[in-house]
Design goal:
By secondary structure, the chain is α+β, with helices and mostly antiparallel strands. It has one domain. The chain has two helices and five strands; from the N terminus they run αβββββα. α1 packs antiparallel against α2. The radius of gyration is 18 Å and the shape is elongated. The mean pLDDT is 87. Keywords: Membrane, Transmembrane, Transmembrane helix.
Length: 128
């Protein structure tokens, strides 16, 4: 029973992260500033997947770098590709790629994973 509760809580937490990321992306769409960026490389992560690295300049003219929170075996964008970065004014840490495919995949990943863990926790709890 304790294991079922833990699995269920993990699912709820992951769902919370997905909703929070969706709300953040929505806020960036309405209030965020757009900046032109360029894919400058790919970061290899554990397991061999690669994330996109983007260089852009913020509103103050400060050069910034952003690494996508998603990674895949085959990078979604080649080096040299132009992309749009969105961030909240005065908060460059809030930056996200304004790439619908990247953002939808990220939110769906959290939602599907969260629903899976929550369903597994509920089924384990109801089985006992």
């Amino acid at each position: 029973m304790v294991f079922a509760v833990v699995i269920g809580l993990v699912g709820v937490f992951v769902l919370y992260r997905g909703v929070r990321e969706w709300l953040h992306l929505r806020r960036l769409r309405t209030e965020g500033r757009a900046a032109a960026g360029t894919v400058t490389g790919h970061e290899t992560r554990a397991g061999g997947s690669r994330a996109v690295i983007v260089a852009y300049t913020d509103e103050l003219g400060t050069p910034r770098q952003l690494t996508s929170n998603l990674s895949s075996a085959v990078p979604t964008m080649p080096i040299g590709s132009p992309v749009t970065v969105r961030y909240l004014a005065g908060d460059p840490a809030s930056a996200f790629l304004d790439e619908r495919r990247e953002n939808v995949r990220s939110v769906l990943f959290y939602v599907i994973l969260g629903l899976g863990f929550t369903a597994a926790g509920l089924s384990l709890a109801l089985r006992d």
